[in-house]
Amino acid sequence: MTENSTINEWLTIPILPCSSVVQTLEFWEMLGYTITYKQTRPYQYGVVERGGYALHFGYLKGLDKQTNSNMGCLVIVGDAAAVYNEFAGRFRQTTGKVPHSGIPRISRMKPGATRFTLTDVAGNAVIFVSRGERDQEVWEEADNRDQGRMKSALTVARRFRDYKNDDVMAAQTLDVALKRREGEHPLEVAEVLVMRMELATAMNDEKALAECKAILGQLDLRDEELLLINKRHSAG
C-alpha cells in the first residue's frame, strides 16, 4: 500500500443537524455554495460544496435551533475577512441587512480579526478561520504578561469578543481596566474606550456609550489620533 493510499483510506464527514434540509440548503446556496445533493425521502439529507469542500446536513426531529449553537464545524479559508465581506454583501442583497443577532446571524468581524462565526438557519455555528499562524498568534496575545494594563485588557477582551462571541465578558474586562485608567497613556485609554463604545453600541447599552464618550472627550486627543483609533476598531 502506498503512502498516499494510506492517507486517503479513511474519510470523516461530520453531519450537521437541521429541522429542514431544503431550507438549510437554500440558505447556504444564498451564500454562494452549490447544492450537490438533496434528498427528502425516505429521510432528509443534503450537501453543499464550495472551494473543494462540503457541508453535510441531516434532518433531526425536534431540533431546537435556539440551542443548537453547540453544533458546528471549522472552515479553514485563505482570507476570512474576504469571505466575511462576501457573505455580508449577500445578506444585504437578499435581506437588506447584515444580521448580528437572532437566527441566522453572522458575528461582527473587526479589522485585523482572523475568524468569524456564521450561525445558519438551523442554529449550526460554522466558524470561518484564516489559514496560517496569525489566528493562533492573536489568541495568544492575551497570555502576554509583559503588556501594560490597557493593552492587556484589549487583548483579553478581543479573545472574548472574537473567539468566544461573548460581548458581555469583553465589556466587563474593559470596564475593569477603565476604572484603573489613572496614570495610563491617553492613547491607550482611548483605544480601550473606543472598543468599549463599539461593544456598547452592539449591546444597545446607551448608558455605557455615553459614559465612554464623556471620558474620551476629557483626554484632549488630536483629531487625527482619534481617527486612527476609530479606524482600527470600526465595525465590520
Automatic annotation (TrEMBL):
Superkingdom of the organism of origin: Bacteria
Q: Which Gene3D superfamilies match?
A: 2,3-Dihydroxybiphenyl 1,2-Dioxygenase, domain 1 (3.10.180.10)
InterPro entries xref list: Glyas_Bleomycin-R_OHBP_Dase (IPR029068)
Instruction: Name the SUPFAM superfamilies on file.
Output: Glyoxalase/Bleomycin resistance protein/Dihydroxybiphenyl dioxygenase
The protein's name: Glyoxalase-like domain-containing protein
Q: Which organism is it from?
A: Chitinophaga filiformis
Show the taxonomic lineage: Bacteria, Pseudomonadati, Bacteroidota, Chitinophagia, Chitinophagales
